[in-house]
Amino acid sequence: MEPTKEHHDKMAKMTFAKVYPLYVTKIQNKGRTVDELNHVIKWLTSFDEKKIKEMIKENVTFETFFAKAKLNEHASLIKGVICGYRVEEIDNPLTRKVRYLDKLVDELARGKSLEKILRSP
Known about the structure:
Layout: H1 5-13, H2 16-29, H3 34-45, H4 49-57, H5 62-68, E1 81-82, E2 85-86, H6 93-109, H7 114-117
Antiparallel strand pairs: 1-2
């Protein structure tokens, strides 16, 4: 399944502040911690907890969130299906980054170890 232009536009305009609490609920319901979630976000974006809180407070869109991020050099190792899309096949760079984050959060919620989530070659 290939995302549409409308899908890409929706991803760009979605705010991190709206999605972050959903991530927290998802991982906590599976026995994981906010510290682990923030660790995964930091690995992907280089944002520490202070910067994550700042992004939430500023109500930034994912477009702004990822424009300010320094994506981990191993992010391209994130592969698999999330929300019906194969992450590595998404052509739109911003949508792919959002789905990278979704995939990492999903893996955390599924109980994968941090060592496996935080890919390294």
